[in-house]
Design brief:
With 356 residues, the protein is α/β, with parallel strands linked by helices. The chain has one domain: TIM Barrel. The protein has 12 helices and 12 strands. An 8-stranded parallel β-barrel has the order 1-2-3-4-7-8-9-12, surrounded by 5 helices. Strand 10 and strand 11 form a beta hairpin. Helix 4 runs parallel beside helix 7 and helix 10 runs parallel beside helix 11. The protein is globular, with a radius of gyration of 19 Å. The structure holds D-mannonic acid and manganese (II) ion (MN). The site of D-mannonic acid has 15 residues, from strand 4.
Length: 356
Protein backbone atom coordinates (compact mmCIF):
# COMPACT_ATOMS: atom_id res chain seq x y z
CA UNK A 1 0.00 0.00 0.00
CA UNK A 2 1.35 3.42 -0.95
CA UNK A 3 -0.16 6.25 1.10
CA UNK A 4 -0.99 9.59 -0.49
CA UNK A 5 -2.55 12.95 0.37
CA UNK A 6 -4.63 15.08 -1.98
CA UNK A 7 -3.17 18.53 -2.63
CA UNK A 8 -4.64 21.47 -4.56
CA UNK A 9 -1.42 23.20 -5.59
CA UNK A 10 0.79 25.91 -4.12
CA UNK A 11 -1.53 28.78 -5.03
CA UNK A 12 -4.78 27.19 -3.87
CA UNK A 13 -3.98 24.89 -0.98
CA UNK A 14 -3.21 26.38 2.43
CA UNK A 15 -1.37 23.17 3.36
CA UNK A 16 2.33 23.32 2.44
CA UNK A 17 3.96 20.21 0.97
CA UNK A 18 6.40 20.11 3.88
CA UNK A 19 3.49 19.45 6.26
CA UNK A 20 2.37 16.56 4.07
CA UNK A 21 5.90 15.17 4.14
CA UNK A 22 5.69 15.06 7.95
CA UNK A 23 2.61 12.82 8.10
CA UNK A 24 3.98 9.34 8.91
CA UNK A 25 3.98 6.96 5.99
CA UNK A 26 2.95 9.42 3.29
CA UNK A 27 5.04 9.13 0.14
CA UNK A 28 2.61 10.36 -2.51
CA UNK A 29 0.95 13.62 -3.41
CA UNK A 30 -2.33 13.15 -5.27
CA UNK A 31 -2.35 16.24 -7.45
CA UNK A 32 -3.80 17.86 -10.55
CA UNK A 33 -3.68 20.98 -12.67
CA UNK A 34 -6.75 23.00 -11.82
CA UNK A 35 -6.57 25.77 -14.39
CA UNK A 36 -6.77 23.77 -17.61
CA UNK A 37 -10.32 23.90 -19.05
CA UNK A 38 -11.93 20.45 -19.23
CA UNK A 39 -11.44 18.98 -22.70
CA UNK A 40 -8.03 20.56 -23.36
CA UNK A 41 -4.64 18.84 -23.19
CA UNK A 42 -2.56 19.61 -20.09
CA UNK A 43 0.55 21.68 -20.93
CA UNK A 44 3.81 19.76 -20.47
CA UNK A 45 5.59 22.63 -18.73
CA UNK A 46 2.86 22.89 -16.09
CA UNK A 47 2.91 19.14 -15.52
CA UNK A 48 6.69 19.27 -15.07
CA UNK A 49 6.46 22.21 -12.72
CA UNK A 50 4.01 20.32 -10.51
CA UNK A 51 6.20 17.21 -10.54
CA UNK A 52 9.26 19.30 -9.65
CA UNK A 53 7.51 20.95 -6.69
CA UNK A 54 6.32 17.63 -5.35
CA UNK A 55 9.71 15.96 -5.74
CA UNK A 56 11.54 18.91 -4.21
CA UNK A 57 9.46 18.28 -1.09
CA UNK A 58 10.64 14.66 -0.99
CA UNK A 59 7.35 13.24 -2.28
CA UNK A 60 6.16 11.52 -5.46
CA UNK A 61 3.50 12.36 -8.02
CA UNK A 62 2.26 9.01 -9.28
CA UNK A 63 -1.50 9.57 -8.96
CA UNK A 64 -3.49 12.35 -10.61
CA UNK A 65 -6.97 13.25 -9.35
CA UNK A 66 -8.60 14.15 -11.62
CA UNK A 67 -8.17 14.47 -15.32
CA UNK A 68 -11.82 15.35 -15.78
CA UNK A 69 -13.81 13.95 -18.68
CA UNK A 70 -15.67 16.65 -20.60
CA UNK A 71 -19.42 16.87 -20.85
CA UNK A 72 -18.99 16.62 -24.66
CA UNK A 73 -17.61 13.10 -24.14
CA UNK A 74 -20.30 12.18 -21.62
CA UNK A 75 -23.09 13.53 -23.85
CA UNK A 76 -21.55 12.03 -27.01
CA UNK A 77 -21.27 15.25 -29.02
CA UNK A 78 -19.31 15.31 -32.31
CA UNK A 79 -16.62 17.34 -30.52
CA UNK A 80 -15.89 14.33 -28.29
CA UNK A 81 -13.25 12.94 -30.66
CA UNK A 82 -11.17 16.09 -30.34
CA UNK A 83 -11.54 15.99 -26.55
CA UNK A 84 -10.52 12.33 -26.52
CA UNK A 85 -7.43 13.15 -28.56
CA UNK A 86 -6.54 15.80 -25.99
CA UNK A 87 -7.16 13.33 -23.19
CA UNK A 88 -4.74 10.88 -24.83
CA UNK A 89 -2.14 13.65 -25.15
CA UNK A 90 -2.55 14.31 -21.43
CA UNK A 91 -2.12 10.60 -20.62
CA UNK A 92 1.09 10.49 -22.63
CA UNK A 93 2.48 13.66 -21.05
CA UNK A 94 1.65 12.48 -17.54
CA UNK A 95 3.40 9.18 -18.22
CA UNK A 96 6.56 11.10 -19.04
CA UNK A 97 6.81 12.43 -15.48
CA UNK A 98 6.12 9.02 -13.92
CA UNK A 99 2.36 9.16 -13.33
CA UNK A 100 0.91 5.65 -12.96
CA UNK A 101 -2.77 6.22 -12.15
CA UNK A 102 -5.40 8.70 -13.32
CA UNK A 103 -8.54 9.03 -11.19
CA UNK A 104 -11.61 10.41 -13.01
CA UNK A 105 -15.36 10.21 -12.80
CA UNK A 106 -18.20 9.81 -15.26
CA UNK A 107 -20.94 11.79 -13.49
CA UNK A 108 -23.03 14.14 -15.66
CA UNK A 109 -22.99 17.86 -14.78
CA UNK A 110 -22.17 17.54 -11.07
CA UNK A 111 -19.31 15.75 -9.37
CA UNK A 112 -20.12 14.88 -5.73
CA UNK A 113 -23.23 16.42 -4.15
CA UNK A 114 -23.87 17.45 -0.54
CA UNK A 115 -26.59 19.54 1.04
CA UNK A 116 -24.41 20.80 3.91
CA UNK A 117 -20.67 21.48 3.92
CA UNK A 118 -20.61 22.34 7.66
CA UNK A 119 -22.84 19.84 9.36
CA UNK A 120 -22.09 19.96 13.11
CA UNK A 121 -21.33 16.70 14.90
CA UNK A 122 -21.85 16.22 18.64
CA UNK A 123 -18.09 16.54 19.27
CA UNK A 124 -18.07 20.09 17.89
CA UNK A 125 -16.43 19.19 14.57
CA UNK A 126 -18.03 19.83 11.17
CA UNK A 127 -18.47 17.51 8.22
CA UNK A 128 -20.10 17.27 4.80
CA UNK A 129 -23.62 15.88 4.89
CA UNK A 130 -26.46 14.93 2.60
CA UNK A 131 -30.18 14.95 3.23
CA UNK A 132 -32.37 14.23 0.23
CA UNK A 133 -35.11 16.45 1.67
CA UNK A 134 -32.72 19.43 1.59
CA UNK A 135 -31.56 19.18 -2.04
CA UNK A 136 -32.48 22.58 -3.54
CA UNK A 137 -35.30 22.64 -6.06
CA UNK A 138 -33.28 24.42 -8.71
CA UNK A 139 -29.89 23.77 -10.26
CA UNK A 140 -28.84 27.41 -9.92
CA UNK A 141 -29.59 27.30 -6.22
CA UNK A 142 -27.51 24.13 -5.91
CA UNK A 143 -24.50 25.72 -7.65
CA UNK A 144 -24.79 28.89 -5.55
CA UNK A 145 -25.04 26.86 -2.34
CA UNK A 146 -21.77 24.99 -2.95
CA UNK A 147 -20.03 28.20 -4.01
CA UNK A 148 -21.21 30.16 -0.97
CA UNK A 149 -20.56 27.42 1.58
CA UNK A 150 -17.01 26.54 0.62
CA UNK A 151 -15.14 29.15 2.72
CA UNK A 152 -13.74 30.85 -0.35
CA UNK A 153 -12.13 27.73 -1.81
CA UNK A 154 -12.86 26.30 -5.25
CA UNK A 155 -14.38 22.87 -4.79
CA UNK A 156 -13.28 20.02 -7.11
CA UNK A 157 -15.81 19.27 -9.82
CA UNK A 158 -17.69 22.55 -9.27
CA UNK A 159 -15.77 24.76 -11.70
CA UNK A 160 -17.67 28.09 -11.91
CA UNK A 161 -16.87 28.52 -15.64
CA UNK A 162 -18.27 25.10 -16.53
CA UNK A 163 -21.37 25.61 -14.39
CA UNK A 164 -21.94 29.26 -15.37
CA UNK A 165 -24.96 28.23 -17.44
CA UNK A 166 -25.96 25.10 -15.61
CA UNK A 167 -29.45 25.12 -17.18
CA UNK A 168 -28.00 24.88 -20.69
CA UNK A 169 -25.57 22.18 -19.60
CA UNK A 170 -28.43 20.25 -18.01
CA UNK A 171 -30.55 20.65 -21.17
CA UNK A 172 -27.71 19.21 -23.27
CA UNK A 173 -28.19 15.93 -21.36
CA UNK A 174 -31.92 15.76 -22.24
CA UNK A 175 -31.48 12.73 -24.53
CA UNK A 176 -28.82 11.01 -22.42
CA UNK A 177 -30.44 8.24 -20.44
CA UNK A 178 -28.55 5.57 -18.51
CA UNK A 179 -28.04 3.39 -21.62
CA UNK A 180 -26.74 6.32 -23.68
CA UNK A 181 -24.39 7.43 -20.90
CA UNK A 182 -23.02 3.88 -20.63
CA UNK A 183 -22.54 3.76 -24.43
CA UNK A 184 -20.66 7.06 -24.40
CA UNK A 185 -18.58 5.77 -21.53
CA UNK A 186 -17.71 2.59 -23.44
CA UNK A 187 -16.71 4.69 -26.47
CA UNK A 188 -14.36 6.77 -24.31
CA UNK A 189 -12.71 3.79 -22.62
CA UNK A 190 -12.19 1.88 -25.85
CA UNK A 191 -10.68 4.97 -27.47
CA UNK A 192 -8.13 5.66 -24.72
CA UNK A 193 -7.12 2.12 -23.70
CA UNK A 194 -4.43 1.60 -26.36
CA UNK A 195 -2.68 4.75 -25.09
CA UNK A 196 -3.00 3.66 -21.43
CA UNK A 197 -1.47 0.29 -22.25
CA UNK A 198 1.28 1.81 -24.34
CA UNK A 199 2.22 4.47 -21.78
CA UNK A 200 1.57 2.32 -18.70
CA UNK A 201 -1.02 4.58 -17.08
CA UNK A 202 -3.99 2.98 -15.29
CA UNK A 203 -7.40 4.62 -15.42
CA UNK A 204 -9.28 4.45 -12.13
CA UNK A 205 -12.91 5.58 -12.18
CA UNK A 206 -14.29 7.17 -9.02
CA UNK A 207 -17.81 6.04 -8.06
CA UNK A 208 -20.78 8.35 -8.21
CA UNK A 209 -21.21 10.34 -5.04
CA UNK A 210 -23.90 9.79 -3.82
CA UNK A 211 -24.45 6.54 -5.74
CA UNK A 212 -27.94 7.28 -7.05
CA UNK A 213 -29.38 9.56 -9.75
CA UNK A 214 -29.76 13.23 -8.81
CA UNK A 215 -31.86 15.91 -10.52
CA UNK A 216 -33.06 13.13 -12.86
CA UNK A 217 -29.56 12.78 -14.36
CA UNK A 218 -28.45 9.20 -15.06
CA UNK A 219 -25.56 7.69 -13.13
CA UNK A 220 -23.60 4.59 -14.15
CA UNK A 221 -20.95 4.02 -11.42
CA UNK A 222 -23.19 3.24 -8.44
CA UNK A 223 -22.82 -0.40 -7.46
CA UNK A 224 -21.09 -3.69 -8.25
CA UNK A 225 -23.28 -4.33 -11.30
CA UNK A 226 -22.22 -0.99 -12.77
CA UNK A 227 -18.57 -1.70 -11.97
CA UNK A 228 -18.79 -5.09 -13.70
CA UNK A 229 -20.32 -3.45 -16.76
CA UNK A 230 -17.42 -0.95 -16.86
CA UNK A 231 -14.94 -3.83 -16.67
CA UNK A 232 -16.68 -5.40 -19.68
CA UNK A 233 -15.91 -2.31 -21.81
CA UNK A 234 -12.30 -3.46 -21.91
CA UNK A 235 -11.02 -6.18 -19.61
CA UNK A 236 -7.58 -4.98 -18.53
CA UNK A 237 -5.84 -3.74 -15.37
CA UNK A 238 -5.57 -0.41 -17.18
CA UNK A 239 -9.36 -0.07 -17.09
CA UNK A 240 -9.48 0.02 -13.32
CA UNK A 241 -11.20 1.53 -10.32
CA UNK A 242 -10.84 4.05 -7.55
CA UNK A 243 -12.76 2.38 -4.76
CA UNK A 244 -14.02 5.37 -2.78
CA UNK A 245 -15.30 3.58 0.31
CA UNK A 246 -17.37 6.56 1.42
CA UNK A 247 -19.07 7.16 -1.93
CA UNK A 248 -19.95 3.51 -2.49
CA UNK A 249 -20.77 3.08 1.19
CA UNK A 250 -23.41 5.82 0.99
CA UNK A 251 -25.52 3.25 -0.87
CA UNK A 252 -26.84 1.08 1.98
CA UNK A 253 -26.90 -1.99 -0.30
CA UNK A 254 -23.22 -1.65 -1.26
CA UNK A 255 -21.01 -4.04 0.73
CA UNK A 256 -17.69 -2.21 0.43
CA UNK A 257 -15.34 -4.97 1.73
CA UNK A 258 -17.04 -7.48 -0.61
CA UNK A 259 -16.65 -5.09 -3.57
CA UNK A 260 -12.97 -4.64 -2.72
CA UNK A 261 -12.42 -8.39 -2.46
CA UNK A 262 -14.05 -9.03 -5.81
CA UNK A 263 -12.29 -6.26 -7.74
CA UNK A 264 -8.88 -6.65 -6.05
CA UNK A 265 -9.15 -10.36 -6.76
CA UNK A 266 -9.25 -9.51 -10.46
CA UNK A 267 -6.44 -6.94 -10.16
CA UNK A 268 -8.72 -4.02 -11.03
CA UNK A 269 -8.26 -1.69 -8.04
CA UNK A 270 -5.64 0.97 -8.72
CA UNK A 271 -6.55 3.48 -6.03
CA UNK A 272 -8.54 3.53 -2.79
CA UNK A 273 -10.19 6.44 -1.00
CA UNK A 274 -10.42 5.11 2.53
CA UNK A 275 -13.05 7.04 4.45
CA UNK A 276 -16.10 6.50 6.60
CA UNK A 277 -19.68 7.78 6.53
CA UNK A 278 -22.63 7.46 8.87
CA UNK A 279 -26.04 6.39 7.58
CA UNK A 280 -28.85 8.25 9.32
CA UNK A 281 -31.93 7.24 7.31
CA UNK A 282 -32.62 6.35 3.67
CA UNK A 283 -31.15 9.17 1.58
CA UNK A 284 -29.63 10.82 4.65
CA UNK A 285 -25.99 10.48 5.69
CA UNK A 286 -23.10 12.48 7.02
CA UNK A 287 -19.36 11.99 6.88
CA UNK A 288 -17.49 11.00 10.02
CA UNK A 289 -13.98 10.53 11.30
CA UNK A 290 -12.17 7.56 9.76
CA UNK A 291 -12.56 5.45 12.94
CA UNK A 292 -14.99 2.55 12.35
CA UNK A 293 -17.04 3.19 15.49
CA UNK A 294 -17.88 6.76 14.45
CA UNK A 295 -19.45 5.71 11.14
CA UNK A 296 -21.26 2.90 9.37
CA UNK A 297 -18.30 1.33 7.57
CA UNK A 298 -15.95 -1.25 9.09
CA UNK A 299 -12.53 0.17 8.25
CA UNK A 300 -10.80 -2.93 9.63
CA UNK A 301 -12.68 -5.14 7.15
CA UNK A 302 -11.80 -2.69 4.38
CA UNK A 303 -8.07 -2.79 5.17
CA UNK A 304 -8.21 -6.57 5.65
CA UNK A 305 -9.80 -7.00 2.21
CA UNK A 306 -6.90 -5.02 0.72
CA UNK A 307 -4.27 -6.91 2.69
CA UNK A 308 -5.62 -10.37 1.89
CA UNK A 309 -5.66 -9.53 -1.80
CA UNK A 310 -2.02 -8.35 -1.73
CA UNK A 311 -3.05 -4.81 -2.66
CA UNK A 312 0.05 -2.78 -3.56
CA UNK A 313 -1.67 0.22 -5.13
CA UNK A 314 -2.34 3.72 -3.85
CA UNK A 315 -4.50 4.75 -0.89
CA UNK A 316 -5.46 8.15 0.43
CA UNK A 317 -7.71 9.24 3.24
CA UNK A 318 -10.73 11.04 1.88
CA UNK A 319 -12.72 13.87 3.35
CA UNK A 320 -11.81 14.70 6.91
CA UNK A 321 -13.81 16.65 9.47
CA UNK A 322 -13.08 20.29 10.20
CA UNK A 323 -11.49 20.15 13.65
CA UNK A 324 -9.32 22.26 15.96
CA UNK A 325 -10.66 25.49 14.44
CA UNK A 326 -9.07 24.81 11.08
CA UNK A 327 -10.92 26.73 8.38
CA UNK A 328 -9.80 24.79 5.33
CA UNK A 329 -11.42 23.66 2.12
CA UNK A 330 -14.44 21.66 3.34
CA UNK A 331 -13.41 18.00 3.59
CA UNK A 332 -9.78 18.81 2.84
CA UNK A 333 -8.28 20.18 6.02
CA UNK A 334 -4.93 18.95 7.29
CA UNK A 335 -5.66 17.73 10.80
CA UNK A 336 -8.40 15.17 10.41
CA UNK A 337 -6.98 13.70 7.21
CA UNK A 338 -3.65 13.28 9.00
CA UNK A 339 -5.44 11.57 11.89
CA UNK A 340 -7.14 9.35 9.33
CA UNK A 341 -3.78 8.33 7.87
CA UNK A 342 -2.35 7.51 11.30
CA UNK A 343 -5.35 5.28 11.95
CA UNK A 344 -5.17 3.54 8.55
CA UNK A 345 -1.44 2.95 9.12
CA UNK A 346 -2.25 1.43 12.50
CA UNK A 347 -4.82 -0.94 11.07
CA UNK A 348 -2.39 -1.94 8.32
CA UNK A 349 0.51 -2.61 10.71
CA UNK A 350 -1.68 -4.67 13.02
CA UNK A 351 -3.07 -6.74 10.15
CA UNK A 352 0.40 -7.19 8.68
CA UNK A 353 1.96 -8.37 11.94
CA UNK A 354 -0.93 -10.66 12.84
CA UNK A 355 -0.49 -12.40 9.48
CA UNK A 356 3.28 -12.75 9.77
C1 LIG B 1 -13.60 13.58 -4.53
C2 LIG B 1 -14.17 13.78 -5.91
O1 LIG B 1 -13.85 15.40 -3.14
C3 LIG B 1 -14.37 14.40 -3.57
O2 LIG B 1 -15.48 13.99 -3.27
O3 LIG B 1 -13.59 12.29 -4.11
O4 LIG B 1 -14.23 15.13 -6.22
C4 LIG B 1 -13.30 13.07 -6.88
O5 LIG B 1 -12.05 13.73 -6.92
C5 LIG B 1 -13.81 13.02 -8.27
O6 LIG B 1 -15.10 12.56 -8.34
C6 LIG B 1 -12.92 12.14 -9.12
O7 LIG B 1 -13.00 12.60 -10.40
MN1 LIG C 1 -13.61 9.86 -2.99
Amino acid sequence: MKMGFRWYGASDDPIPLRYIRQIPGVTQVVGALYDVPVGQAWPMDEIEALRDQVEAAGLKLEVIESVNVSDDIKIGLPSRDRHIENYITTIERLSRVGVKVICYNFMPVFDWLRTDLHFPLDDGSHVLAYDRALVPGSLDEMVAKVRDDSQGFAMPGWEPERLADVQALFAAYADVDEAALADNYRYFIQAIMPACEKFDVRMAVHPDDPPWPIFGLPRVVKNIDDLRRIESFHDSPYNGFTVCCGSLGEGPDNDVPAILRELCGRGKVAFVHARNIKHVAPGVFHESSHLSSTGSLDMYQIMLALFENHFDGYVRPDHGRDIWDERGRPGYGLYDRALGIAYLNGLWEAINKSHA
